[in-house]
Fold each of these.
Amino acid sequence: MTGNFWNEVLLYGPGFLEASYTVFGITILTIAVSWGFGLVAALAQRSKFRAVRMAAAFYIWFVRGTPTLIQVFIIYFGLPQIGIRLSPFAAGVIALGVNSGAYVAEIIRGGLSAIPRGQTESALALGFSPAETMRGIVLPQVFRIILPSITNEAISTLKNTSLLSTITVVELTLYAQTLIASTFRPFEFYIAVAVIYLVLTTILTTLASWLERRYANLG
Amino acid sequence: MSAPLLSLKEIRKSFGENEVLKGVSLDVKAGEVVSIIGASGSGKSTFLRSINALEMPQSGFMEFEDMSFDFRQESRFFPSQAQLQTLRARVGMVFQSYNLWPHMTVLENVIHAPIKLLKMPRRQAIEEAEALLSRIGLLEKRDSYPSRLSGGQQQRVAIVRALAMKPRLMLFDEVTSALDPELVHEVLVLMASLASEGMTMLLVTHEIAFARDVSSRVLFFDKGVISEAGSPDILRHPESERLKQFLHRILHDQVGHSISNDSDRGVQA
C-alpha cells in the first residue's frame, strides 16, 4: 500500500537534498540576474533617449507576453543554432533571470514613481550628481517600498525552476520524475517534491518578513 | 563698492508656451537678505530655483564667486555637470516640503553631504552636525527618523542640513508655507538669527511681517519680472497699484509673524 512506501521515499533523502541545493542555487543566481536586468530596464524607461526607452519597453512587452517555458526553450534549444551553446544550468539561470527581470523592472518602476520629486531635488541641491542621488537617496527608499512585491517575485522564480526539468537540469522535479520512472510511485514522490518546495518558499518568506520588520520603524 | 556675491542678468525661462521669467536681473552683495514676494505664478520660485539651476534658464548670465555662466545651450560658458555640482555645493537650498530623507536619521541627514561631497572625515562631520543640532535645540533627536519630528523640527533640520555644507548663499523657497501656524515661528526665528550673523540669503516668502523686519531688500515679482524693488519700506508704502493690491490681499489673509514681537531690540534668536 501507499502508506508503506513513504519509508522508501526517505531513502532518497540525500538525492532530494542535492536537488534542493540545485533549486536554491538557481534561485539565488536568477534573483541576482533579474535584479540586474530589472534595475537597468526600469532606469532605461526613464531615459531621455527615446531608443533606450523603446528597447526597455520592448523587452518587458516580449517577456510578459510569451510563456516562460517558450523563453527557456529559445535560450536552451534555439540559441545553439546561432552558435551560442549554454549548459542546461546556465541556460536556465539566464532564461529565468531575463524573464523575472521584466517583472522586477515593473516593480521597481512603481517604486520609483512613489518617491516624491523633492527627495531627488534636495540631494541635487546639495551638489550630488544624478547617479549619486539615485544610488544613495532614491534606491534605498525604493527597496523598502518594493520589498513585499519583490519577495513575491522571488517565490515565483523559485517555483519556476521546475520548468528547467524540461531542459535536463536535475532539479527537484526532474529528479522525482526519474525516480517515478523506476518505482511507479508518482503520488508519494510528487507530494514529497511539493513539501520540499513549501519548505524552500517558507524560508524565503520568513527571510523577507524579517527584513520588512527591520525596516518597518523607518520612514 | 564691493563686487556682488551673486549677479544675474536677463534670466529667461519658459515652460512650453508659458514664459515664466522675462529677463530678470539682480545683484546680491555678501550679507544681504533679499525677500522675494509675489502672487503664485509670478515666477518667484522659478527664479529662486534657477539660481542653483534646479530649473535651468534658457538664457541669461550668472556670476557667483569665481564662477560665471552663460545659460544659452550653445554657449561655451554653459555650465557643465561638474560646475553645476560645485555651484550647488556652495549654495544651500531649503524647500517648502522639507524633503528630509526618511530612511536616514536626523544625524545621517546632516552628515551625508559633507562626508560624501566635501570628503570631510566622519568624526569631524558628526562633531559639526552635533554643534548645529544643539544650536537649534534638537541634539537629543539626532538618532530619530524624520517621521518622528514635527514639521517645524523637520524644517529646522533641513536648514541645518544645508548649513552643514558651509554655503556662501542660502535660498529659502517658501519654507514656512507647509507648516502648521504654530510651528512657523520657530523656523522664522532660526532664519532671522542666520540673517543677523551675516548669512547672505534669498527667500521667497508670504510672511510679509518677516520680510519687513529681516530683509535688507524686497523684490516684488509680477508676471515674470521684478515689478517693484527697494527697501522693506515698500511693504508699508507700495508705489505700484499691483503691489498695493497684492499686499492688501495677503495681509487680510494672515495675522503675520513678526519677529520683532519677541524682543525689544528687534531681531534676536
Amino acid sequence: MKIIINGKEEAVAENATLEEIVASRGLNPGGIIVELNYALVKRESWPDTILRENDRVEILRFVGGG
Amino acid sequence: MADALKIGGRDLTSRLFLGTGKFSANRLIPEVVKASGAQVVTVALRRVDTDYQEENIAAYVPAGCILMPNTSGARTAEEAVRIARLARAAGCGDWVKIEVIRDNRYLLPDNYETIKATEILAAEGFVVLPYMSPDLSVAKRLAEAGAAAVMPLGSPIGSNRGLRTRELIRILIEEIPLPIIVDAGIGRPSEAAEAMEMGAAAVLVNTAIATAGDPVAMGRAFGLAVEAGRAAYLAGMPGTVDYARASSPLTGFLRD
C-alpha cells in the first residue's frame, strides 16, 4: 500500500506499524517525533499504530535554531 | 530575586537568550550555555532526513534551561500553531517563539500572521514570545492577544548588522508594558549592551555566537555585555550635551 512519509509517497507492507516504519529507516527513536495525519503519536503507541492506505506520516526532530 | 526577568511564571536571572542554529558541533552548546549563563535556549523542529543522521539537539541543552522551540518554517499562523502544539506534545514545555516568515530574502516576519498565531496559542496556555518587525500598533495587538513578551528584530536574521531599528525599538520599550526582547541581527556584544542600556528586557543571540572564531569565549563576552548593559540601564544613563562640560574643576591658581 502507499502512504505519504515526509511529503513523499512510499510503498510499505500492508498493516505496517509506525514502529516498523521508524525502524526501517534506521532512526534512533529517542530523538524523533512522529505525527500521523496531523496528530502526534507518542512513542509507546508506535507498535500498536497500524497504518492505512494514504496515511500521512511526518517524522520530525528538534534541530538547532534561533 | 533582585532584578529577575519574569516571564511565564519564571524568574530569569540571565537576560541573554541563546539560539542553537549554525554551531559547528552540538557539543559546543552546553559549553556556550555555561559560559554565557543563558537560561532560555531556542530550538527548531524539522523533518528528518533519513539519508543524513542528525542528533537530537534537545539532548545538548542542559537540564534547568527553558527550551523554547521556534516555529521557523511556518508561513502562516496555522502552520505556526501546528508546530507549537507538536513541540509541546513532544514534551518541550509551554514556551514558544512564534516566527512566521514569507519573505525569503530578508526573512522579515509577517506581523499579521504572527498576531493571529499569538492569539490562538496564548488562549491554549502557551507562553508566547512573538518575533516581529518593530511596529507600535502590532506590539499593542500582540500584548492584547496575550503575548508574554514582544521580540522585535534589530536587523535581518543572521546579518550581524546590529540595532538598525533602534528608534522603533525605543518606542516599543517606552510604550509596551511587556518585556521587549531584541531578537535577530545583534552581531557584537557592544550591540547587545546597547539594547540593554536602552531598557530592553533581554536579547536573543544566535549567529554572532555560533559562528564566532571561539563560540564559547564569545558566549561569555555576550553574557558580560548583557549584564553590563542592564546594570547601566538600572544605574540611570545620563543625557548628552553638544559641548564639553569639564569633569575637573577649572577654577585655578595658575592665572588670574
